[in-house]
Amino acid sequence: MSAVGHDQGQLAAYVLGGLTPGEAATFETHLANCPTCRREVRELSELRHHLDEVPPEAFLEGPPDGGDLLLQRTLRQVREEEGAQERKPRRFLAVAGAAVLVVVALGAGVLVGRQTSPEPSTVALPVPTATAPVPGTRDLAATNRDTGVQLAVRVVPAAGWVRLHAKATGVREGEKCALVVVTKSGERVNAGSWLVSEKGQREGTGVDGSALVAPGDVASVEVVTMDGRNLVSAQA
Where exactly are the transmembrane stretches of this chain (predicted)? Predict the structure, then answer.
């Protein structure tokens, strides 16, 4: 097996522990006689350290705000080195393989543990088990055509109260906002508040909150300003 013939996906799969025992044994036999591939495996293994910057929740329900910066940096490095591919072909392939490793880890939901040894074969790679939504969970969404604000919110029932995972987009920078749960009787319960940043105006703001409202009593979830303006309301 020649180093030139290696698929970078195979290198990434080896570092992630995605090969079968037989495939891994065959690859390690080649690795013992291929300094180039050993270097690339070390580089991909080093990249795994940086995945510790991404919180576990990103692998379960999607990356939080800023959670994709590592992938963006890696891909940007690939593009910058693409022009030097003829001069440094193996280095370019190693960086490209690193990008593949990040995409595999983020896209496939692999939770990578902290590496405690420089040898890839000693790294544990626990894979989280997918969990079903809590019974009674509801996904609400709405767009206010007048304000241009959009709201998507997941209402998760608890024992006599609710958790909320919301994202509000289209709100101007500097606005002081609150996430409000409205009951069927008209009571309004504040579930969280935030100040819209420049990034929040551009990409939306994610907000996690909770409200002491019985799950079956939720009539709507709203985004309002601190001075009382209703920006958007999602009906349950």
Answer: 92-112
Tell how far CA 118 is from the center of its chain: 26
The whole-angstrom separation of Cα 104 and Cα 82 is 21
Which tokens belong to 30?
């080649």
Q: Mean pLDDT throughout 165-169?
A: 95
Give span(s): CATH 2.60.40, the chain: 138-235
The answer to whether 218 touches 122, Cβ cutoff 8 Å, is no
Identify the residue whose tokens are 């939080």: 64
User: CATH classification of 138-235 is 2.60.40, yes or no?
Assistant: yes
**Do 166 and 153 form a contact (C-beta atoms < 8 A)?**
yes
Token digits for 87? 């001069």
Tell me the percentage of the chain whose pLDDT exceeds 90. 43
Residue 9, token pair as written in the block: 């996906």
CATH 1.10.10.1320 fits 9-83, yes or no: yes
* Rounded CA separation 53/181 (Å): 33
What number is the average pLDDT over the span 102-122? 43
Sign of the Cα torsion 227, 228, 234, 236 reads: positive
Prediction pTM value: 0.47
